[in-house]
Amino acid sequence: MRVGLYPGTFDPVTHGHLDIIQRACSLVDRLVIGVAINRDKGPMFTLEERVAMIEAETAHLGAQTGCIIDVHPFENLLINCARDVGASVIIRGLRAVADFEYEYQMVGMNRVLDNSIETVFLMAEAQHQAIASKLVKEIARLGGDVSKFVTPAVNTALKKRFAG
User: Fold this and answer.
1) Which residue, 35, 86, 112, 143, has most beta carbons within 10 Å?
2) CATH code of the domain covering residue 54
3) How many domains does the chain have?
4) What is the rounded distance in angstroms from the CA atom of residue 68 to the CA atom of residue 95?
């Protein structure tokens, strides 16, 4: 069984993330979505909320793609998380050239730490390349419409978070 790990903060999960998740399912038998506990980023949604959102938004994909999807919070090194879940591949989404520079450095470091785990980059579909969780939160905070970037349930969660 080929196991892949798709890590991120997912604060919140966007259409771009879901696109990468769906496409990653065609590459692996089991996809572990690693939800990073990253205190430095100061996520808006709690870990529990982010995990619940991803589970709800990906529930149908397992049956649709035949891929087993698990959501796994982690706070350790990415390469250690990959080992913990038995992943032979780390899946990373790229939106633009700026993403590549950071990801390229990460791959180099991860290869030194464990060269048996490969990294695969998936380019976001063109309509999702501008979507960034940080920008989605900013637009929602300022009362803008983010319905083109997130699912209806995530949109509702954002509206609730910024109400009042």
Assistant:
1) 35
2) 3.40.50.620
3) 1
4) 25
